[in-house]
Amino acid sequence: MTTERLIDELLLWALNASGGDTTCDLGPHTGVAPSRLPFPDEAAVQQAASGLEVRGWARGFRNAGGDVVFFRLTSAGVREGERRRAAVASRRDRLAFAENALLTWVFEAAEVGRPVELLDFVSSPANYFYGSRLSVDEVDTASRNLVGLNMLSTTGGPLTGVRLEPDGTSCVMSGQPVRTYLQQQRPVHLEQHVHEGGVGAQGFSVHQQLGDRGTGAAS
Known about the structure:
Elements: H1 3-18, H2 42-54, E1 58-62, E2 68-73, H3 75-88, H4 91-109, E3 116-117, H5 118-122, E4 128-129, E5 132-133, H6 136-148, E6 152-154, E7 161-164, H7 166-174, H8 178-185, E8 188-196, E9 204-212
Antiparallel strand pairs: 1-2, 3-7, 4-5, 6-7, 8-9
């Protein structure tokens, strides 16, 4: 389990366990049953709690040995936890994440001229959104979206092999999310609107408007 995933899971667990109360003591030494903590061992708890501290999302209380005995969420931690909890419950946010995560994973995993299998993504560490695993249906929908956007091509039906297309490579290399990249790639054109009876040698008034292709309307 990666450090980021440990932090993701501890933050949401702490928000649920505390109810957003920043005075609530949390952790394995506060009477919380180990089975209620979403971690395999004490070392993982320490790692995640330290990560929350570094990000300003929790304040840790340590013993003489430097271990976190318990921690409390900060106001910033509560806000971030609530934002993430809402995102995990949002179909739109989950699919947006799935598109970005899947495209990046294909870019990293693909070999030249060879497809990669989407089932491998489903079981990979990349398939987690704030600690919540994406469903097979969500991965399939994201892959079909990316195929429709000409960023991936498929070798067959749902959850089969996919290849990275040039537009997909360009998007990943730009460092931008898929939808942001697409918005910035939309061609801009120049419109001219001509009105009779205006100024000018020919009796016309001309004004120009920049807009996205296909969205301009005649005046």
